[in-house]
Amino acid sequence: MPDGDVTAQDAARPDPVAVVAQLKAWALELGFARAAVTGTDLSHAEAGLQAWLDAGYHGEMDYMARHGMKRARPAELVPGTQSVVSVFLPYRPPAVANSEAVMADGEKAHISRYALGRDYHKVLRNRLQTLADRLTALIGPFGHRVFVDSAPVLEVELAKQAGLGWRGKHTLLINRDYGSYFFLGELFTDLPLPADPPEQNEHCGRCTKCLDVCPTQAIVAPYTVDARRCISYLTIELKGSIPVEFRPMIGNRVYGCDDCQLCCPWNRFAVDTAEADFHVRHGLDDITLAELFAWSEADFQSRMAGSAIYRIGHAQWLRNLAVGLGNAPSTPRVLAALASRQQSDDETLREHVAWALAQHAARQKGENDDRRGAAPGHTTTG
After folding, report:
1. By three-state DSSP, how is residue 172 classified?
2. N or C: which end of the chain has fewer CB within 10 A?
3. Per the annotation, does 122 bind a ligand?
C-alpha cells in the first residue's frame, strides 16, 4: 500500500487511544480487575528463559522447551501480532477456610485456593473472547487470538511490561493493590495500539519470605523456580511417581501449593473475587483426606467436572491423597483409608499407598521404642 493511503475501514476506525480506553472500560465490566496494553518485544527475557531451560528446571514439562524462543516472541507465535492486551482477575474465594489452619490439621487436605471453584481457563477465555467480539463490533474485523495459560506465552513478562505489576521473587506477578491472588490472560491483536508504561520497580526489596518458607526449597534463587522441586509441579504436572525425598515435605498439600503467596506481605492487599465461578465447590476448602480418598472414579468425575483438578484424573488425584495420608496422624480413619486401596489395580497408587503405610509403621515403632525407653528401670546410665 502506498504511503499515505488508508483503507475505508482504517479511516472509519476510532482513534487508537480511544480504542484502548474503551477496551479497559469493557474489561472492567467483564469482571477483570485491570487491563493494559504492551508491545511484542520480549527480547530482554530470552537469555533468562534459555538459561532456565538449559538448567533443566522445567522437569518433564517438555512443551516448555519444545517451542524454543517462540514463547518470548509473540509475533512468531501469532504472526502479525502488534499489541497484546493483558488482564487479570482475582480468584480468592470469599469466606474460604483459613489455609494455615487446614494445613495444621494433618487429617485435612489442602487444595490450592485457585482450584476450589470452576476451571479458570474457560472463565477467562470466554471473557477475553467477549472483549474481542466487542472490539470487532466497534472497529470491524481484526486479527486476534486469546490465551489463558494455554500456549507458550510469557504471561508474567507481558503483564509486567504492560504495567500490571512486577515479578516477585517467587516468579508470580504482584500488584500493589491486589497482591498475587489472580489469574492472568492475554488478547493478542494485529492492531497498533498505544502501549502502557511498564512497571519499572520491583517492590520486594530485601524480603526473602517466599524463598525461606517453600517446603521443598524449590525457589533456588530470587526469581528462579526449579519446577522439579515445586509441590505444584509434583502434584499436578508430574505424571508418574512422586520422588520419595519430597513426599514428607508435601505434607497435606494434595493439589498445588500456596505457601509462597500465604507469606507474601503484599497479599495483605489481596481482595476476594466477585466471580461466582471461583467460589468454593463441594466443601473442598475444608475437607478430610480420608473423605476424598473414598471417592470413586464416578464421584471424582461428577464432582470435579468443570474444575481445574479434573485435568489430572482420578488416579493421579488418589496418588496425591495417598502421600497426604502417609503424612497424616496415625488415626483409625487414616489407616483404614489407606488399607482400602492397598490392592488397587493402579501400580503407581499401590506403591504410594505402601509408602504411606510404611511411614505410619515406622512412626508407630518409634513411638513404641520411646515408650519402652522411658519405662521405669530402663535407664541408660549406671
Report:
1. coil
2. C
3. no
